[in-house]
Amino acid sequence: MTDRVLIVDFGSQVTQLIARRVRESGVYCEIHPFNRVTGASLRDFAPRAVILSGGPASVVDIGTPRAADEVFALGVPVLGICYGQQTMCAQLGGTVEPGDHREFGRAWVEVADECALFHGVWSKGGREQVWMSHGDRVTALPPGFRVVATSEGAPFAAIADDARRFYGVQFHPEVVHTPHGAQLLRNFTHGVAGCSGDWTMAAFRAQEIAKVRAQVGGGRVICGLSGGVDSSVVAALLHEAIGDQLTCVFVDTGLMRLGEADQVVSVFRDRFNINLVHRDASELFLAKLEGVTDPERKRKIIGATFIDVFEEEARKVGGADFLAQGTLYPDVIESVSFIGGPSVTIKSHHNVGGLPERMNMKLVEPLRELFKDEVRALGRELGLPDDMVGRHPFPGPGLAIRIPGQEITRDKLEILRKADAVYLEEIRAAGLYDAIWQAFAVLLPVRTVGVMGDSRSYDYACALRAVTSTDGMTADFYPFDMAFLGRVANRIINEVKGINRVTFDVTSKPPGTIEWE
Length: 517
Ligand code: XMP
What we know:
The chain has 15 helices and 18 strands. The longest helix is centred in the middle third of the chain and has 23 residues, at 295-317.
């Protein structure tokens, strides 16, 4: 079995980054909330090493989170990061106190001694950049530990107990602002814990295929294909695992981008030879959306119509025992919430929620353990075309939410599709596609006056949006140069009949959202 590392989550904003770094080094890991980690779960998971994450609580306060004591009795290496270091020290007989010198952001540590964590990057006497974010600090070490790095605000910036292979760092090695952080983590997982680093996409593919076969047996699986990365990778993987036991249903809402529906059909039916039901439901979706301008109503109608059509097509196929979904790891990590209470719904996202229960199907979710870029790597491994695998995210309700405040009509969809295609073509030609999280055109509900040739025009305005982001939760607008924007505007106005003005959206998220509706 591949080596596994357990990350015990104390609710840090950056716990997922620890997992990213560990996986990038070829070691499989999972994040488990601290209050779910017990002696039994530890034995079950059988980690080769344990990493204790940071967190917002204070070890000094009563009733704050602790690691299960069994973590320190497993005989495997333990690395405590920030809060993780503090709780480890408190639990093993050291002292933690509120600091009078808070450190946030960039800081420097002095390397006080050699340490297995520093191998190949830091040596005794060096001064190294790290990223700190803490108020409390360790003031007395538990028996067996020695100090290996210090900083102004943390006399015990890094500590080591070589005999037990327990290590602690007050700084965050998982963030890029600790330039050697990835190597420090690698030194822990590979050097100290002896993980082999053999977790690759090829290994994952083989392992997942075996798992799917074991789960599905001779059953039938249905998979909703949207043309997006996640569902495409699920379909390709399942096809490899179970061949004709898989049927994919592609519901064409008529709200997709230029050429997208054709690509889905040509890749999956013609190239992969997958059983594919292609239902053109654009008439139905447009009819249901007639006269609707409210964003939430649009979303609800599209979501409900999608489920109806999908269900109808699934029935025609003769039913299935399983529904395959492209659920990703960030959706299944149970995050530790210190705030509590439900969060506000900003937008109701559309998916096939509720379908498995309604149709009495079990779920197959082969991507549950992967982050988005790992899904992309798996897609490439499975032979999906690069432009499909590297595609920007596209919302379920499609172009309907990029025609804000107006009724959706075929004509408007046509205009928007063309403008969007010109914009993306220019982005690709400039080599910027992969640097951008998402880029698209929005058809505005306003007509403006222009002059084209000798005559007056009175046409729609369109807005261009492009953002950078790591997870869609926050975003910054992409800083194109003016010459690029001018070129795109010029082409759109010349080539797309119906648009005579182009604007560029410079709103970040928050306070804006990525989509306009
Ligand atoms: P917002 O607009 O909320 O979008 O900043 C964040 C990310 O989610 C996508 N998005 C959706 N995806 N159904 C989806 O499947 C939806 O209803 C939906 N609304 C927004 C959006 O494109 C961005 O990537």
